[in-house]
Amino acid sequence: MTRTDGYLLDNRQSEAGQGFDALAALFDPTTFRHIERSGIGSGWRCWEVGAGGMSVVSWLAKKVGPTGRVLATDLDTSWASLAVRPPIQLRVHDVGADEPPGEGFDLVHARLVLAHVPDRERALRTMVRALRPGGRLLVEDADPTLQPLACPDEGGPEQQLANRVRHAMRDVLAERGTELAYGRQLPRLLREAGLRQVEAEAYFQLTSPACGALESETVGQAREQLVATDLVTGQDIDRHLANVAAGGMGLVTAPLISAWGRKV
Questions:
Q1: What are the tens digits of pLDDT across the range 173-218?
Q2: How far apart are CA 135 and CA 127, in angstroms?
Q3: What percent of the chain has pLDDT over 90?
């Protein structure tokens, strides 16, 4: 399957499988901590860009309450539950091509989205435009080049193979147009967009069941593209997935860079 949007995980719930749950387990605590620092409360208007799942959207809805609004947008919203109800609103939207879906938002948030968007500069401008004066923008993206290994503790052939697969995965992502070093650029990009009080933080988890689940999901979906890189074979992929399923690999994620600022 050739994807034109740059995403590694298919957004359709039937295809995403454990991917959404793994991302939520790995990164929701960090995301929620940063949003809490923004002072989010009852009545806030929030835009979740490239939602790709319900965990952040549902958490935001609880925070803003019945007087608030949470707009969740994505290129494909078929992942969403049929039980979506106020204050959550769902809309198909391309942040890199469409006009803002509204203005006056107190908070705009995107996680693991902009690095995959072809027109990242326009997407960021769109998000800033959507904020009210004093509103907060939180952008979070991975930076695989800061920590390129699947297993930093390369203690045996299983870890060596995992690192070779991760190398091939970077080539697949780059071929799809993903900016692999985007995360480290976020503080500068937010300042250049006119935001003030810009700060940033890097996070990645050293080993958890969610790391293994995410690895299985992403490698499984990208199998054909990985083999096409000539860095790994189909047998390598099968052996790697079996190693991951057996546990004890010491798998890690790429660092997640969270950057935030306020619109003047």
A1: 999 999 999 999 999 999 999 999 999 999 998 889 999 999 999 9
A2: 11
A3: 86
The yes/no answer on whether domain 13-146+177-205+255-262 falls in CATH 3.40.50.150 is: yes
Q: How many CB atoms lie within 10 A of CB 197?
A: 10
Residue 159 tokens, joined:
């870890």
Residues 6+ apart with CB under 8 A from 55: 20, 24, 28
pLDDT tens profile 121-158: 999 999 999 999 999 999 999 999 999 999 999 999 99
Q: Are strands 256-262 and 88-92 parallel, antiparallel or unpaired?
A: unpaired
Give the CA radius of gyration of the chain: 18
**Residues forming a β-bridge with 49:** 73, 110
Tokens 């390129």 sit at which residue?
148
The answer to whether residues 127 and 137 touch, using CB atoms and an 8 Å cutoff, is yes
Residue 47 main-chain phi, psi, to 5 deg: -120, 115
Question: For residue 208, which phi and psi values (nearest 5 degrees)?
Answer: -165, 160
How far from the centroid of its chain's Cα atoms is residue 223's Cα?
A: 20
Amino acid in the structure at residue 7:
Y
CB atoms within 10 A of CB 10: 19
What are the structural domain ranges in the chain? Answer: 13-146+177-205+255-262
From 85, 5, 105, 3, select the one nearest 50 (Cα to Cα). Answer: 5
Cα dihedral 6, 52, 23, 145 in deg (nearest 10): 20
